[in-house]
Amino acid sequence: MMKKIAVLTTGGDAPGMNPAIRSVVRYALHEKVEVLGISRGYWGLINDEAEWLNHRAVSGIINQGGTVLKTARCPEFKTEEGQEHSFQTLKKYAIEGMIVIGGNGSFSGAHAFVMRYDFPCVGIAASIDNDISGIDTTIGTDTAINTALSAIDNIRDTATSMERIFVVEVMGRECGFIALQVALAGGCEEVLIPERKFDLKEVCHSIVEGNIRGKVSWIVVVAEGAGRAEDIAKKITDMTGLETRAIVLGHIQRGGRPTALSRDLALNLGRAAVDCLLKGGTDRAVGMRAGKIVEVPFAQAIAKKELQVEDMYRLIRVLS
Amino acid sequence: MMKKIAVLTTGGDAPGMNPAIRSVVRYALHEKVEVLGISRGYWGLINDEAEWLNHRAVSGIINQGGTVLKTARCPEFKTEEGQEHSFQTLKKYAIEGMIVIGGNGSFSGAHAFVMRYDFPCVGIAASIDNDISGIDTTIGTDTAINTALSAIDNIRDTATSMERIFVVEVMGRECGFIALQVALAGGCEEVLIPERKFDLKEVCHSIVEGNIRGKVSWIVVVAEGAGRAEDIAKKITDMTGLETRAIVLGHIQRGGRPTALSRDLALNLGRAAVDCLLKGGTDRAVGMRAGKIVEVPFAQAIAKKELQVEDMYRLIRVLS
Amino acid sequence: MMKKIAVLTTGGDAPGMNPAIRSVVRYALHEKVEVLGISRGYWGLINDEAEWLNHRAVSGIINQGGTVLKTARCPEFKTEEGQEHSFQTLKKYAIEGMIVIGGNGSFSGAHAFVMRYDFPCVGIAASIDNDISGIDTTIGTDTAINTALSAIDNIRDTATSMERIFVVEVMGRECGFIALQVALAGGCEEVLIPERKFDLKEVCHSIVEGNIRGKVSWIVVVAEGAGRAEDIAKKITDMTGLETRAIVLGHIQRGGRPTALSRDLALNLGRAAVDCLLKGGTDRAVGMRAGKIVEVPFAQAIAKKELQVEDMYRLIRVLS
Amino acid sequence: MMKKIAVLTTGGDAPGMNPAIRSVVRYALHEKVEVLGISRGYWGLINDEAEWLNHRAVSGIINQGGTVLKTARCPEFKTEEGQEHSFQTLKKYAIEGMIVIGGNGSFSGAHAFVMRYDFPCVGIAASIDNDISGIDTTIGTDTAINTALSAIDNIRDTATSMERIFVVEVMGRECGFIALQVALAGGCEEVLIPERKFDLKEVCHSIVEGNIRGKVSWIVVVAEGAGRAEDIAKKITDMTGLETRAIVLGHIQRGGRPTALSRDLALNLGRAAVDCLLKGGTDRAVGMRAGKIVEVPFAQAIAKKELQVEDMYRLIRVLS
């Protein structure tokens, strides 16, 4: 059985990475496996930035946003040289398996590395973008949704008091998941997402119609992949003549205390990833689907996530 | 097709009841069905406290805790007379179906009413106790867990700073679900639940052992059904000689802004309940299981919920 | 003694306006004075949008952001015609005094109105911008600061995890008060405010120096009156070569549940405004200075607020 | 000038102690003064638990509740022997002055120590109880008030939905400050504090009268020094026949992220304490009064704090 594994966080940080690290470390130690913590993701792997983690090293981080292992984007890991340096680092510490906590791009890198060196790698899906196929949600999504929702609740106060239109841009470059959840929970009037073509003229038409009936405030949620808030706000003003403000929530959604769900997911997946590695699993991510822990091959996990949007979109419109 | 339905909230209030009401009302209106709002649950049904709800009547409540329809416990509804009065009220307004938003006891009452009058009733599971079988969680559970977790995070600050033992009592008269989720997400050292026998001597033994190794703070989560915080704290002090404080979270967990998940669940189930009623469904609750909306007959929904606790309990102990 | 007064909220909404309204209404009623609520600020005054408010009308709003009376910007109130219409509205309802809840611009309008008609007007300073002279803080400032601080805490998670520079734009067109408070409480490295000339070259110089010593993350807070986050971020990237992100908090800071301090201030000032009006006070705002309620003539209240910034600025720099 | 000072936190922990430590350490280092951190308050002083703190040692704690230096109650410090051990520890490290972060009891101890050894000691008032005379509020009070208020907001949801009476016990053994602030900001109907005699019969009388007029929910806030929630709830039930629930907020109020105000106060007082010590100040606490930093001799600071309660009490009653 494995005696030494490595763990790293890579890509954009997500709330829940810290409890995931905690779970990997403590569960592995409990299984008599030592854990090497790599700093700054693949960059630290290439540049040999690492230290052994004990029970205490992950104390007090369960409710902290971000990642104590730090993270970075690292294009060098896509190069042969970068991978070779990484492999040497792992050999140097006699590491037998690696757990990668991150999103789509992170798994892509891990997959290439497994292909090249046949080195056991298991992923834990942690990413704000909820962009991993084959699982329900990534670690951090629930926190990001609640943070965005709280911002929308605040904006609603002003939208109602000042009778204005707000266009609020939330995270989601290729996926409208957060936008849909937030728009529904926030009672928003319209949502624009990359998965669904929209015609701003129709949106404006519906606003003008509502305005004639006496409706005076709107919140339009837009996933960043569907357009920029400022452009959309400007067009709405131009087409309707109504004052429209743009707000970009941006990085606020990335940080903050992980919610119970983000933590519990992270803690369960930390154990699952260690178990998977110890049982010989590799080239795959662990995640939760329909209430059960599943293993999804990296190649499948990084494929485009299909989201059923029509049903939810209709509900948002009916309830607004 | 039905043209007039009634909606009420009954039993203990839960965060998310308001978005559920909003969804029932707006979705029904969209389906050309009128909605009568009954005040104070079955009590209002017996005493004819009701008014028609339009689109605007449920405006601005999506992020409010509690229930604008108010709620009450109502033993009279268990009597023949109470049921007969209720039936007369429904007849008076020409109501053809009823949606009951509540928990275990509420569905029990609805089931008896259906049995007696063959009157179409559909339930929406909303309850802090997560005590409904056949579904994953009730509306409000996620909010209650996050509220309790936030309290535990606060308590942890003092537990660590003052090096003390805290016994924290959370909701759950017959079910340790909230206790387990909170204990895991809060990094708590021990959890006592009704589903699992425990020996306080063992707990104290493990505390004393930890104390010898240098551990100085503990949080013991106890579901109310497993014992009273004050009693347990006293016994721990007696057996270990260490200062132990009791905290009862109580009704704090019941209120507050519903989380995104509690709201989205409520909004989806509101639609599902109306659809179920319109399609001829009765004597059943709608809920979410494994990411899908399901219908569970009342008789089954009110049966004792089985919770797999061992796996989660072990994880809590390993990670603490 | 007066028997009928009017109350309105005007200008940008601020968290705490609702408890202020509650206090004005309930305290006035207690003093046997009727209260007319004007909708949409001066616009409603001009257009006769008003209704009498009873005890119950202000129930349940104490913890709500925004304003139930709604608010609007209203250039027409600066015209003779607008003022004349307003005066007619007040005469129509036999109003003997008016309470204006708002900021700088609102008091300016009220002052002109008093000058013209000698109509008793008392102001309550409620504004995110904390732009009223002669008092410590306006209603809403404490809430806005805490909302911005919570966002900064979130951003810090990513700044630390990803080792980046963030430029965060907070409210404050002419006043750096929020920026200074938030930068200090958030442990931010730099703050740019309108009251204090700054040289971006020096800021970048200090960043580069820090970077050489190993410092890897910065948060630069900028009051909107001191520059646009995006421009500043771009310049920092250009000058330092380090990745820099811009975030505009914007309207998120305006809404949300008022904090205890914002509520208590609002509730005290509501009473004070009614008392002031009943004692014959006019052309002045009530506010809190050094823990005591003070009355500041409008002409003085709308003068440029002087802020001692050097001391606080130095503390921010020393502690970062 | 002094070259070496010590800092410790003692008594009950309060949110804001960490930013106070941060400020003391960083400001002192900036003034070329070394800082020794004593663990566990006076206990660590007696038992020589200490280490030098550098700039980095206080990194990342500005938004954390509790205290990284830990704290403890320490009766031994009241003994000659305890004081002598403490003095020896200070001599061992060549400490020339000490900063004590804590409350009433902590200052009492420091005062005795100064009397005995003429050793320079300056206090920073940090305590949930707001029990220090001569200053407006202690560090942590604003956070505790907001935490309690948030709990009250939650309870209000249930009180309104289920039409019940709640008795909520908040911190304040000898001082009703928190109770008054929270009762006002929470729109509570009644508040019982140690500074003001009350007759529960009158309270019940007013409840019954309200109930006859149709009022159905009450929140009665009680400072712990004025009675136990459970007893009071029982008596209300007995006297009115209405269902009444007791809730004790307890230690939840102690922890959590410090608010902006608690942090800013802590950061300002940290600097002020160092400045005071360096200028030869001793036997005194620094605090904020009427917006200005003041120095209050320990003997005066620990005297009974007089609170003007009538005015605020009346406002609470009028507005409820």
Q: What would you note in describing this structure?
A:
Four copies of one chain form a homotetramer. The mean pLDDT of chain A is 96. Chain A has two domains: 4-140 and 258-301, Rossmann fold (3-Layer(aba) Sandwich), CATH 3.40.50.450; 143-254, 3-Layer(aba) Sandwich (Rossmann fold), CATH 3.40.50.460. In chain A, α5 (141-162) packs across α6. In chain A, the strands form two sheets. In chain A, strands 3-2-1-4-5-10-11 form a seven-stranded mixed beta sheet, sandwiched between helices. In chain A, strands 7-8-6-9 form a four-stranded parallel beta sheet, with helices on both faces. Chain A is 43% helix and 18% strand. The first copy, chain A, is built from eleven helices and eleven strands. Chain A is of the alpha/beta class and 320 residues long. Chains in contact: A-B, A-C, B-D, C-D. Chain A binds chain B through residues 19, 22-23, 26-27, 30, 60, 62-63, 136, 142, 145-146, 149, 153, 156, 160, 181-182, 184-187, 257, 259-261, 263-264, 267-268, 271, 289-292, 315, 318-319, and chain B through 19, 22-23, 26-27, 30, 60, 62-63, 136, 142, 145-146, 149, 153, 156, 160, 181-182, 184-187, 257, 259-261, 263-264, 267-268, 271, 289-292, 315, 318-319.
What key attributes describe this structure?
Rossmann fold; 4-stranded parallel β-sheet; alpha/beta; 43% helix; 7-stranded mixed β-sheet; homotetramer; 2 domains; 320 residues
Give a quick precis of the structure.
The structure is a homotetramer of 320-residue chains. The first copy, chain A, is α/β, with parallel strands linked by helices and 320 residues long.
